């Protein structure tokens, strides 16, 4: 009887060890899958911010060029509706802020911003538009969101 009970104890211990190894392997697999997923989403966000920053710098350069122009000046900047599958919106704030924000439409996160020289007028013809018209004429420096 002692030998049979001793053998059952060894079987119970080996079963517990085997179950522990299986649970550990499953947890390790889930952890590895999560680690593999998050860097890609963080990388996409970082790349989207870099692309949005390039667009904001383009807007900033054109507005500065317009503000320094002596004669009539007109330029357009077309932004895509999405950057790396992230829908974006363009917000313009006139005096006293003089700033343009490029935001993620879904999360509201600011992807990029551009500080602009003093503007005489900001016109928002289309709140959902992604085209920005920059104009300087006898009326002054005007930004129009179309």
Order of helices and strands: HEEEEEEEE
Strand content: 25-35%
SSE class: alpha+beta
Sheet having the most strands:
4 strands, mixed
Helical residues, percent: 40-55%
Radius of gyration: 29 Å
Strand order of the largest sheet: 1-7-8-6
Give the overall average pLDDT. 80
Give a count of the beta strands, DSSP E runs of length 2 or more. 8
Low-confidence stretches: none
Whole-number tally of structural domains: 1
How far apart are the first and last residues' alpha carbons, in Å?
A: 90 Å
Instruction: Estimate the global geometry from the Cα principal axes.
Output: rod-shaped
Features:
146 residues; alpha+beta; 4-stranded antiparallel beta sheet; 46% helix; rod-shaped
Give the structure's gist in a few sentences.
With 146 residues, this protein is α+β, with helices and mostly antiparallel strands. Helix content is 46%, strand content 31%.
Task: Please give the structural blueprint.
Elements: H1 2-68, E1 73-78, E2 82-83, E3 86-93, E4 99-104, E5 110-115, E6 121-124, E7 131-137, E8 140-145
Parallel strand pairs: 6-8
Antiparallel strand pairs: 1-7, 2-3, 3-4, 4-5, 7-8
Provide a descriptive summary of the structure in words:
The strands form two sheets. The protein has a four-stranded mixed sheet, with helices on one face. Strands 2-3-4-5 form a four-stranded antiparallel sheet, with helices on one face. It has one domain (about 40-145). By secondary structure, the chain is of the alpha+beta class. It has one helix at about 1-70; strands at about 75-80, 80-85, 85-95, 100-105, 110-115, 120-125, 130-135, 140-145. β7 and β8 (about 140-145) form a beta hairpin. The protein is rod-shaped and about 90 Å long.
